[in-house]
């Protein structure tokens, strides 16, 4: 897929996202440090949190970006705030061990700010269908002011692009190792501008980073009761919201992007959970 050509067309199109909206709908500037906060945890809470961030209904392994080619881009606010959010997302990715492409690069982790998320999605579907996965059944089901999706590719254990379900890898077949795994070719989140009013650039960028770097289901992640930046869009205005990535968010990202390749989704979730528990100092004693 020629993502760069698609993006050039996108930037030349309105898609309900003005380049210079009113400042009332733009985030506030904030410090650029990654300040993490946490709380006591339980084994079940970690498991529930990981499940909420690793939605993989049609794949046997958890998809993510791979290689040194992640290139975030924010679009739809003023030039200044687009730049601040993009820079912050790169900082989060770097802190999490995500392989970043050297700038200038072809954007493949897009954050689009728009007046109406569904209207924007419908317009993009008509005009840029290449930006969407073939299966769009669940795309319009996400509640709230944001919506995210990914376009997936496939590679084999040798890191070679795979087509269809046939793997041409030279590795021997195994029930414990997946010969072909999904990877992110493109990840997109559309956020309504009104929803970010009152938030800082750090909050908005950290939320966006969690959406484009993972297959997160914010509602399921919140149901775990764990503190997460993913909660900011649904936290009532009179209630405190995370001001940056939480310990849970950063630990999850680091664990996800440190996973070995070829494992099943169930095994990967277990590895992520164990890694997070080590970060929290709560690794359970497993009985033989």
Query: What's the overall geometry?
Result: globular
Instruction: Report Rg.
Output: 19 Å
Q: Which structural category fits the helices and strands?
A: alpha/beta
Quaternary structure classification: single chain
Beta content comes to 5-15%
Uncertain runs are: 1-5, 11-24, 284-288
Biggest beta sheet summary: 4 strands, mixed
Number of helices: 8
Rounded mean pLDDT is 81
Helical fraction equals 25-40%
Please write the string of helix (H) and strand (E) elements. HHEHEHEEHHHH
Query: CA-to-CA gap between the ends?
Result: 48 Å
Signal peptide: 1-17
Keywords: Signal
Protein name: DUF2927 domain-containing protein
Organism: Sphingomonas rustica
Could you walk me through the main structural features you see in this protein, from its secondary elements to its overall organization?
The protein is built from eight helices and four strands; from the N terminus they run H-H-E-H-E-H-E-E-H-H-H-H. The protein is of the alpha/beta class. It has one domain. Helix 3 links the parallel strand 1 (72-75) and strand 2 (109-114). It starts with a helix and ends in an 8-residue tail after the last helix. Mean pLDDT is 81; it is low at 1-5, 11-24 and 284-288.
């Amino acid at each position: 897929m020629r993502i760069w050509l698609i993006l050039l067309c996108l930037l030349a199109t309105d898609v309900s996202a003005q380049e210079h909206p009113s400042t009332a709908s733009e985030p506030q500037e904030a410090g650029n440090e990654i300040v993490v906060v946490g709380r006591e945890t339980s084994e079940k809470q970690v498991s529930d949190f990981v499940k909420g961030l690793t939605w993989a209904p049609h794949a046997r392994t958890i998809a993510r970006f791979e290689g040194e080619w992640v290139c975030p881009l924010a679009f739809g606010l003023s030039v200044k705030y687009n730049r601040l959010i993009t820079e912050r997302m790169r900082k989060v990715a770097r802190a999490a061990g995500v392989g970043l492409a050297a700038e200038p690069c072809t954007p493949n982790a897009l954050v689009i700010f728009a007046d109406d998320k569904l209207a924007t999605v419908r317009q993009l579907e008509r005009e840029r269908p290449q930006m969407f996965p073939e299966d769009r059944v669940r795309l319009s089901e996400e509640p709230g002011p944001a919506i995210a999706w990914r376009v997936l590719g496939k590679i084999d254990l040798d890191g070679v692009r795979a087509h269809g379900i046939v793997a041409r890898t030279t590795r021997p077949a195994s029930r414990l190792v997946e010969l072909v795994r999904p990877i992110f070719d493109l990840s997109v989140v559309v956020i309504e501008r009104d929803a970010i009013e009152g938030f800082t650039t750090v909050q908005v960028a950290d939320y966006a980073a969690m959406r484009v770097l993972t297959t997160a289901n914010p509602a399921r992640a919140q149901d775990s009761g764990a503190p997460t930046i993913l909660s900011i869009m649904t936290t009532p205005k009179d209630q405190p919201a995370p001001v940056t990535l939480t310990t849970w968010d950063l630990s999850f990202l680091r664990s996800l992007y440190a996973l070995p390749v070829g494992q099943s989704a169930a095994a990967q979730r277990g590895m992520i959970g164990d890694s997070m528990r080590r970060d929290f100092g709560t690794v359970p004693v497993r009985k033989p």
